[in-house]
Every structure is written in C-alpha cells, then in structure tokens.
Specification:
The protein is α/β, with parallel strands linked by helices. The protein is built from eight helices and eight strands; from the N terminus they run βαβαβαβαββαβαβαα. Helix 2 packs parallel to helix 3. The structure holds D-xylitol-5-phosphate and zinc ion. D-xylitol-5-phosphate binds next to strand 2, strand 8 and helix 7.
Length: 225
C-alpha cells in the first residue's frame, strides 16, 4: 500500500447510479471506499444502511472503510462485518465504553478506527492510541458532504502525529471533510496518511483524474514520519 491512501466517499456519488460509481473507484488509483453511515440522531442526516453497503461490497474490489455516524454503534458491529466492512470507525462522542467497542471491532476481524469531531481533543485518545488502527479526524462537522474545511485541523493533525510517534503506535491518521488540491498537500505535510474526498472527486468533471491528483500529492510533500 502506497501513501497517501485515498478513500473517495460514496456519499457524494449519484445514488441512482451507484454501481457506476463503484466501478469508477475500482478502475481508479483509489485505495479504499469511504462509506458514511448516518442515523439521523448522532448527525442531522440519514444516509444508508446494511443493504446498500452489502451491494457496494459485492462490486467493490477494494476495502470498505466504514465511518459510523450513529449512536450506540456497539449494537451493530457484527452486522457491519457481515455487510462487508474491512475498517470500521466509531465516533468517540458516541461511545460510553469506547475500549470495549474497539475490542469488539477487532474480535470481529476488522481494523478499528476512532473518529473525532472538530471540537474533540486528540488528548482524549491517549489511552487507546496504541490499540487502534486509525483515527478519523473530522475536518468538518459530520453530517454532510461538500462542507468548508476547518483550518484548525492542520495543527490538530500535526499534534496527533506527534502523539502517535511518541506512543510508538502504528495508528494511521485519516482526514475527513473538505479535502481538495489546496487542503490535501498541507494535510500530508501535517502527517496525514489517508485522505477522504467526496465532493472534490464526485463534483469534478473527471473523477478518475481527480483521484490521480490526490494520489500523486504524496510525491510532492514531506511527511513528518
Ligand atoms: C461527512 C462525511 C464525509 C463526507 C466528506 O460527515 O463523514 O466522509 O462524505 O465529503 P467532502 O469531501 O465533500 O467534504
Ligand atoms: Zn466520513
């Protein structure tokens, strides 16, 4: 796997032609599918659930990176595995027993990610940073594609990278929200490993070229690691 890992978010795809979007990602330089699940409670929007994820998984030739924006995610860990998730991210803000839920994700054979909202301090992850595979750092308030990037994320990302290195953890940093050709290189300089992009990819005239642009960004930046 070469860095940065690029994960187009299918939330911005045309749902009436989801199969085409999956094929496009299969044929592109993208590494993962980013799959946003919203319950209308944790975030003010509802996206899709198990049947849609399973249908995407059937066609997808790359791992599904499933981002749960739902309350009580611990209730559905096994079901997300069965639907095809390879990486499962739960929100710090949605879990009372975060450590137990991380264990459950790993016991079910998936990589475990923890997502944090823009207002959530990275220091709250200190006690689990050695146990998780990824932090999904939200650079917009979760709920919608196409929102404006929150600039404070650059500094937050650099601080998280430092914390990961100090802990000798192999945890990767994923940035989710408002990633494009301006924010992308700066995020990679700040230590990001994985870039999620929805609107930038699916709102462009040539999504395959746009994904290529994101993938090539790694060669022009100096990672802190
Ligand atoms: C937002 C979702 C994101 C979203 C990113 O709640 O978690 O994954 O699809 O979309 P863009 O790249 O358009 O900000
Ligand atoms: Zn997401």
């Amino acid at each position: 796997m070469s860095f940065p890992i690029i994960a187009p978010s299918i939330l911005s795809a045309d749902f009436a032609n989801l199969g085409q979007a999956v094929e496009m990602i299969n044929n592109s330089a993208a590494d993962w599918f980013h799959v946003d699940v919203m319950d209308g409670v944790f975030v003010p929007n509802i996206s899709f659930g198990f049947p849609v994820i399973a249908a995407v998984h059937k066609l997808a030739k790359k791992p599904l990176d499933v981002h749960l924006m739902i309350v009580q995610p611990e209730r559905y860990i096994k079901e997300f595995k069965e639907a095809g998730a390879a990486i499962l991210s739960i929100h710090y803000e949605a879990c009372t027993h975060l450590h137990r839920t991380i264990d459950a994700i790993k016991e079910n054979g998936m990589k475990a990610g923890v997502a944090i909202n823009p207002h959530t301090s990275i220091h709250l992850l200190k006690e689990v940073i050695a146990d998780i595979d990824m932090v999904c750092m939200m650079s917009v308030n979760p709920g919608f594609g196409g929102q404006k990037f929150i600039k404070h994320t650059y500094q937050k990302c650099a601080e998280l990278k430092e914390m990961i290195l100090k802990a000798h953890s192999s945890c990767l940093i994923e940035i989710d929200g408002g990633v494009n050709d301006t924010t992308g290189p700066l995020l990679l300089n700040a230590g990001a490993d994985i870039l999620v992009a929805g609107n930038y990819v699916f709102g462009s005239a040539n999504p395959i070229n746009t994904i290529n642009t994101l993938k090539q960004m790694g060669s022009n930046t100096t990672s802190l690691s």
